């Protein structure tokens, strides 16, 4: 006997074996039990979710000579066996992708006049129904609306929006969902036991993940892996080799180089991946998901617990998540999400991928807001590392050249001023305590991911581009920003009433105190008089504070 592919060999023979579509199966079984069978059904969903399988099971169930109490077919009678083998004259399957003309539908209209040969119903299963031509749909319309009592139409499609509304309105519509990763994994493990094949759980879980909600894809991929390593235990490394996939460690190395802006090393990693024969479209998809997981880890510890990652991989990704900022990570995901569409149709996949990697490491190639913020981040990190250092003479020369005529900064004057004492002199003790409690609540909001999400992580992060000041009434907060690019964007963000009111309400919720927040633009955040108290560099105060006059 010739070999049969796993997805054909283990096609469900009863409703209980259909995984992940309980909402459809339960409804159809109830219709059979209570004799409420419709005349037209529309099964919609992505590939490999069980549309055709359920259609055949339904055809068996309605024609079965000895159906079970729950509505399932017995699979023992002559009718069930003939339908399973594809020899039944009462169940007609038609592929609309290759039989989509008016003449094909006319043949159906002529044949529905004849009663079933053996069973109670004549069932027409039209696969890829959206491929029918406009004329074919019109020819089917009347028959679909008023078929003989013994005829059932089942239309299966992956693109329900292409089905004319006149057809859809005459059918009972069932949406087949993507099958969950855990459901696919359990089904694969069950079938491997039946096949008496040894495999690592990690390997099968990866196959289930790559299948992307399609049980048929999962079985086909598993079949491919088993065939390559026939008679051997299927390991995670072997699955990666067969499917052309990349291990998480390579993604981690690539992300570290991208964060550092090291284009040469990042391209070297891509070159290694290409020479290993990895499939580039799959590489792009997997790396996008890797960055998505980083985003969830960075957003909340609660979300990180829901990721399907080993403890070692999770710890490694948490370290990388700490190194990359949220706006930069969102830009990376955007670039690779666009790439996943482009690379599918690209004739030079390698060039397309390398260009995207260069975009990640050199944000100056783009001029959107996210890229500008990323460029500023890189400059800040280089300054902090001492990559740019100027002597006082150089600073004076640069200032003179620009006509500013400023003096070199002096650290001694800054250190002589007791900023906190000046703030205490400006406020009453009660006002001082109130303001300390309010600023502590702002810091708590920035530290707590759940609280921060209520305002917006990106919005709260922009607060570091300005300073938080005490208003002239000694009861309000004033957010001050300069006119540079990032501060201007932060000012625009906090000028939005929805953000300011949300922050005011949250502060009130945490402290029990009502506070008004206002925003202003200034030429400089530095203060030149004693009445405006600047605590930006005060080690005792974690936030920059001033009294605004």
Please characterize this protein's 3D structure.
- The longest helix is centred in the middle third of the chain and has 20 residues, at 280-299.
- The chain has 27 helices and 8 strands.
- The protein has helices spanning 6-9, 22-33, 51-63, 78-85, 102-111, 134-145, 165-168, 181-195, 201-210, 215-228, 236-243, 248-260, 263-275, 280-299, 301-304, 311-323, 326-345, 349-361, 369-384, 392-401, 411-416, 419-426, 429-447, 449-455, 457-461, 485-495, 497-511, and strands at residues 40-45, 91-95, 122-127, 151-157, 172-176, 467-470, 477-481, 517-521.
- The chain has a 5-stranded parallel β-sheet with strand order 2-3-4-1-5, covered by helices on one side. A 3-stranded mixed β-sheet has the order 6-7-8.
- Residues 404-417 and 528-547 have low confidence and may be disordered.
- The chain is elongated.
- It has 549 residues and is of the alpha/beta class.
Which helices and strands, and how do they pair?
Layout: H1 6-9, H2 22-33, E1 40-45, H3 51-63, H4 78-85, E2 91-95, H5 102-111, E3 122-127, H6 134-145, E4 151-157, H7 165-168, E5 172-176, H8 181-195, H9 201-210, H10 215-228, H11 236-243, H12 248-260, H13 263-275, H14 280-299, H15 301-304, H16 311-323, H17 326-345, H18 349-361, H19 369-384, H20 392-401, H21 411-416, H22 419-426, H23 429-447, H24 449-455, H25 457-461, E6 467-470, E7 477-481, H26 485-495, H27 497-511, E8 517-521
Parallel strand pairs: 1-4, 1-5, 2-3, 3-4, 7-8
Antiparallel strand pairs: 6-7
Helix pairs in contact: 2-3, 3-4, 5-6, 8-9, 9-10, 9-11, 10-11, 12-13, 12-16, 13-18, 14-16, 14-17, 17-18, 17-19, 23-24, 23-27
